[in-house]
Amino acid sequence: MQNLPVSHHRRPLAATRAALARGRLAVGFLGGSITSPGTGKSWPEPVLRWLGQRFPAVRLSVENAAIGATGSDLAAFRAGPAVVAHGCDLVFVEFATNDFQEPTVRRNRTREGVLRRLLAAGCDVVLVYTFCPEMQTDMAAGRVPASVAEFEVLANHYGLSSVWMGLHAWNEVHAGQMSWHEWLPDGLHPENRGSLSYAQSVIAFCEAELSAPGLPPARSPGLPPPCDALCWENVSRVPWSAVETTGLWTLRRWTTCLGLEQVLHTTVPGARLQFNFAGRGLVLGFDFGRLAGEVRYRIDGGPWVTTQRDRPAWAGDSGWCRLVVIDDLAVREHRCELETLAAPITGGCGTVTTLGLIGVVL
């Protein structure tokens, strides 16, 4: 793998340079737990420290919107309010790991939707790829894992720079500069040494990019046509005021599950809700965990579908923003009905239902 490039410089960071010249730079992050700020040991921290030291006269603001155990499907709904709305000039996008288990078609559509939202807002976007154990077989054989290779197709289409942080760390391990345990103590999440390795590859990219002579900003030709016309570029939310409920539901502010600000909450089996929406896809986001019950839903009076979600050992009682995606609908008006189930499923111990997102793919 040493012969493969860690970084690709495809587009000058024009928005970043302009922000540095103004003396104020806003940096955003989208990704999973490897990027999230929760532990204070993630790779964005050394990168931000480097930016502060490299440009001491610049006021640096940060919007780290990465959330553990979530992928680009949730980010399609959060990129606008969590990053674009805060005026981020430079955004790092990290989903090669968390999207790994998603079907190729779906992850390509959700990723492209996120990227088009960011690019339409004028952000500089840099793709960064971390490592998960499922990539090891391909990398050991000198192959690029599919989750990374598919991101590179989008990078080439939109002229986006990318940094393969996982490859940089892999090369360090195989050169004897870092042990595997120093890189990934639990097999997936880097801490101090591993996060520094990831950060060093991004810092090297930024140093090369921002030290090069500045080019006059080119006139933007606008976005090219999407690779997939069904990408999740245009999404919306069904407002809570449009949801009809039956049984004991409460609408409340929510602070225990990142990504969900306001929720409809019930602990009552058999509670129901229904709403109309117009689009070709529906995304329901729940605060999920061991205390969560399953639900059943149906679209347009069709057959009921019962959710059967796994509950990994690492999942807590709650706090996991988990999505149910229905993305094979005709483009028209639809009606969705949902009901909480009367009995917990095997492996669960509760009947709590907390719905925090009703998203529509247009």
- Our count of helices gives 9
CATH class of the largest domain: Alpha Beta
Beta-strand portion reads: 25-35%
Contiguous uncertain segments of 5+ residues: none
CATH superfamily of the largest domain: SGNH hydrolase
- Please identify, by name, the CATH architecture of the largest domain: 3-Layer(aba) Sandwich
Helix content percent band: 25-40%
What is the SS-derived class? alpha+beta
SSE order, one letter for each helix or strand:
EHEHEHEHEHHEHHHEEEEEEEEEEE
According to DSSP, the number of beta strands is 17
Number of domains: 2
Strand order of the largest sheet: 1-6-5-4-2-3
How many angstroms separate the termini? 40 Å
- Arithmetic mean of pLDDT: 95
- At the fold tier of CATH, the topology name of the largest domain is Rossmann fold
Choose one word for the global shape: globular
Please specify the SSE layout and strand pairing.
Blueprint (H helix, E strand, L loop, with lengths): L6 E2 L5 H9 L1 E8 L12 H11 L4 E6 L7 H12 L6 E5 L9 H17 L3 E5 L7 H5 L5 H13 L2 E3 L1 H10 L5 H4 L8 H20 L23 E3 L6 E3 L3 E4 L8 E5 L5 E8 L1 E8 L6 E5 L5 E2 L13 E7 L5 E9 L12 E9 L1
Parallel strand pairs: 2-3, 2-4, 4-5, 5-6
Antiparallel strand pairs: 1-6, 7-17, 8-11, 9-10, 10-17, 11-16, 12-15, 12-17, 13-14, 13-16
Helix pairs in contact: 2-9, 3-4, 4-6, 7-9
